[in-house]
Amino acid sequence: MRSCVFLLSAAFLCVTSAQFIPPYTEDCRTHMYPPNGPTFRGPVSWYTVDLDLPPSKRWTPLITDKKTDLVNMIQAIRDLANAFVPSGKLIELVDITLPLMVNTLPYPFNEEIKGISTDSGVPLGEVVLFNIFYEVFTVCTSIVAEDNKGNLVHGRNLDFGLFLGWDVKNKSWTISEKLKPLVVNLDFKRKNQTVFKSTNFAGYVGMLTGIKPHTFTLTMNERFSLDGGYIGILEWIMGQRDGMWMSFLTRSVLENANSYEEAKKHLAQTKMLAPAYFILGGNQTQQGCIITRSRELSINILEIDLKLGRWYVLETNYDHWEEPFFLDDRRTPAMKCMNQTTQANMSLKTMYDVLSTKPVLNKLTTYTTLMQVSEGKLESYIRDCPDPCMPW
Ligand SMILES: *[C@@H]1O[C@H](CO)[C@@H](O)[C@H](O)[C@H]1NC(C)=O
Ligand SMILES: *[C@@H]1O[C@H](CO)[C@@H](O)[C@H](O)[C@H]1NC(C)=O
Ligand SMILES: *[C@@H]1O[C@H](CO)[C@@H](O)[C@H](O)[C@H]1NC(C)=O
Ligand SMILES: *[C@@H]1O[C@H](CO)[C@@H](O)[C@H](O)[C@H]1NC(C)=O
Ligand SMILES: *[C@@H]1O[C@H](CO)[C@@H](O)[C@H](O)[C@H]1NC(C)=O
């Protein structure tokens, strides 16, 4: 079985011993948009990243603005590490070993990470840690849907911070809470023209959510697998470096691919350090797919197929041809709400409704992003999930 099943069961016991929260579902939400009420914490601000600047200088305006929040988040990670290994030895190890690793990371990511460390004053090893180990703690929901006029709508919830410190008093995940102030929208420009846009965490240089306006939209979800990220990351440290970091691949595709087909090819064929799901939307009818990846290759591509009545594709963190783990079934409720919405009523508004329905919305949900390729639109919202609410 997957490592995640074990970890989730452990987390479930851990959380339920604190206070029992039954699997919590609700009727599909409606009229949630424009975002308001207790599940909407606030809007996300925009920053420009100028790709014409040297990599070490690109993030300076953002990091200067977000320095305090970044330092707070890193401090929370340190506190967690010190709770596991009280001597402080774990962070000492990170500070000593991970800076050595930064030079093995591909350009321009190595230079960008060094720049972020300089701009924020956060030790280099801890910035590296934030950039590479995110992927162990992410669970998500991504959907690409086609309305009955052929417009593609792409939505996602980014659920981050699983296992990273359950705060019994506040009934929240410590790191998820600390990440919310770091959520930003980024406009990547070259020669003063937008190349792509994304929703990101300040201090993180890879991409989990992005749009190339009028061309394609892309999100990445974690895929738990025995041949998982740890092995690839260990191999990287040991010197075997022919695979690509997943979120660097998505960023490179957003930066360089010029069509849905080209993006699909790179996402399906590039060797990677860890398995993943890529959810890709194009700019024409039936251009929407889930690419299920092993480290080596694409195992399966599921596309929108109107003839078969498949007007959307939806991915959480389980292979679409298998049942989701029963303690973590966000797929069935999300599909139920998509089916209830119907293709005729699909829009950014109704997508937001689906992504606002518990447990698709849960205690880990840090942000919801909505993208419409034909208008080049990306909008995102910081989320809360007041009780009763599933921890994931
Ligand atoms: C718990 O929540 C309250 C109110 O939202 C906040 O002020 C406090 O800092 C939180 N405590 C922790 C440990 O996060
Ligand atoms: C960049 O574009 C914006 C509008 O898109 C314009 O207001 C600004 O003057 C431009 N800056 C430069 C340096 O060309
Ligand atoms: C869709 O993308 C292709 C490839 O970049 C481009 O040639 C075409 O003009 C785009 N179509 C629309 C409707 O934007
Ligand atoms: C949603 O509709 C699809 C296609 O008709 C169907 O295969 C699926 O079982 C439905 N799922 C739910 C949860 O209603
Ligand atoms: C779709 O939208 C129309 C108009 O807003 C509404 O009358 C209808 O009830 C909706 N259908 C569903 C299935 O929600």
Automatic annotation (TrEMBL):
CDD domains: Ntn_AC_NAAA. InterPro entries: Acid_ceramidase-like, Acid_ceramidase_N, CBAH/NAAA_C. This is Acid ceramidase. Coiled coil: none annotated. GO terms for cellular component: extracellular region; lysosome; membrane. Its EC number is 3.5.1.23. It is an enzyme of class 3 (hydrolase). Pathway: Sphingolipid metabolism; Lipid metabolism; sphingolipid metabolism. It catalyses: an N-acylsphing-4-enine + H2O = sphing-4-enine + a fatty acid. Keywords: Disulfide bond, Glycoprotein, Hydrolase, Lipid metabolism, Lysosome, Secreted, Signal, Sphingolipid metabolism. Residues 42-104 form the Acid ceramidase N-terminal domain.
